[in-house]
Amino acid sequence: MNLSQLYKTIFMRKRPEDVAAMVMELIGNELTKAQHITLNKAAKGSLKNRFMQYTSMMQSFAMPSGANRQINKAAELFRLDQVPKIDGHDPEAIEGFIKKLSPQIKKTFGKNDFMRHRLNRLSRKAIGLDISKRRYNKLFRHLQRMETKLEGVIAAYKKREFQQVAKHGIVHRLTYDMFAQDKYTACFIAYYTARCNLRSEFTVNGQTRPFDKISQMLLKLSEDKGTPNYLAMAYVYPVAQTLEKLNDHERGQLLGKWTSATGTKLI
User: Cα(first)–Cα(last) distance of the chain, in Å?
Assistant: First the structure.
């Protein structure tokens, strides 16, 4: 077990028990007997300690469906020599591909109204676009659909971002270098993030708080044995106890990350 494997969990929805088992592998031999018992209460419920290593719960936040099917169809309709190697989940790559194809039928990116932006026969002839009306309409409509798909992919990424922020703050924007500065801080961040990512419960008694006894133990461990990285902690645990340890520059940096993630405009 190493920190890079633990780092990957902050982008996923790993069960806290599974992250606890990873933490146990990483620092288990450095714990006191009482700390070992506390952490093991969660770690013993990890999937690797089960006979059936399976969970029905999703282990990641849902990704957009992507535009690979539309890209493949575009390569067929525009009679390209080969299907371009484009990541159908990358909005910039999708947009670039659409903008590359659009000039072939003299279409402007963003002009998708079939009645107002489509060229008629005389206009096509005037610019030397010698293709049938049926083929032109088919190509126009496909580019139109690709732009609609692009908008859908962008919207899905925004929705995913808001889902992540609602669950675990902005920890998914934490760099590996910051995460790995202190292994005890990293263990706290990874476990607490997994706790934050737990599914909501249908209950009248209120949701289970993510900060449990193990979170408390790992936080204290980072303060007692390590060099706690409070700025990294604040990405997922922005409470007064953490924020008061930051200097003005770090608070400004954190505020910038939050406004970027939520799309908030500062006045």
Answer: 46
